TrEMBL record:
Subcellular localization(s) per the UniProt record: Membrane
Record's bilayer topology term: Multi-pass membrane protein
GO biological process assignments: spore germination
Entry keywords, A to Z: Germination, Membrane, Transmembrane, Transmembrane helix, Transport
Family affiliation: Belongs to the amino acid-polyamine-organocation (APC) superfamily. Spore germination protein (SGP) (TC 2.A.3.9) family.
One GO cellular component term: membrane
Presence of keyword Transmembrane: yes
Residue ranges of the TM segments: 48-67, 74-100, 129-151, 163-185, 197-216
Protein source organism: Paenibacillus macerans (Bacillus macerans)
Protein name: Spore germination family protein
Primary localization class, coarse: membrane
Amino acid sequence: MLGRLAQLFLPVTIVVFALLSILTIPEWNVSNALPIMGNGPVPSLKGAIVPFTWFSGYLLLGLYFPLLSNQRKAAFFVLTAWFGEMITLAASGLVSVFLFGEYAGTLNYPFIEVVRYIGLGEFFQHIDALLLAVWLPGTFIELAAYFYAAVTGMAEWIGLKDYRALAFPLGFLALVVSFWGLSGAADFAHYLATSHVWFDFSLVVFGFILFLTAWIRGKLGALKPNRVQEKDGM
């Protein structure tokens, strides 16, 4: 059901994003993006660290793979989504730079400011509500995917046959934790630049360790039958 909901909102999200980007074209100043890598590639690589950690959420898809009948097809769609998200992030960043120049780097959510910048006459304002209309369902789907992964992962970890027994306790815990907020915009900006980056980066490292462990175990498991056959032959 969650997958069907994502299929329903994905085309709408793409259309809204493309439409909002097109509406800003008359205000673009492409020279704001020049010179490209004027100070070398190092600043660009440093700026790519934070967006790179956002892709750590794809590691949770590993919990869904055992439930799929066609894993190769799923891998294709995952890579397609990864590439599409990369293009979307790059496009939204470029549009923000075209409009705000160096000031875009000081904004926590520059594309929201881009949408607020849009105005069609005096009768069509506050178009940012259109962005929120597709952002909120996407956030709900993402949180639901995280919650399902947490419930099923913990159930498998502690050996429960039915993961539904953990749905209510973990849901109540998530509700309680949701009331813990940051005191202000300054603290939130500091969190995004420090703790949030390290947390996402740790997920990437942890996922790589799990992949490496599974790969080594697979190689060792493939060697055992060969050794058994050699002993039987002797």
